[in-house]
Amino acid sequence: MKKYTDGTVKAVELEDEDGSAVYSVHVTAKEGKHYDVKVDAISGKITKAENDRYGENENE
Fold first, then answer.
1. pTM for the full predicted model
2. SS3 content of the chain, % helix, strand, coil (to 5)
3. What percent of the chain lies above the pLDDT cut of 90?
């Protein structure tokens, strides 16, 4: 969780994923890695995070 909160938000998009509203937040972490973090639009909880460069799943 810390690697996302210390990062810089580059873009935010509201998306529909399987009928659920989620924010797709593009974050550049402090160490320079890029992440696509999915945030539930209702609860505010991170539901998924992928390393943008490799598409690797970081958190579910």
1. 0.74
2. 5, 60, 35
3. 48
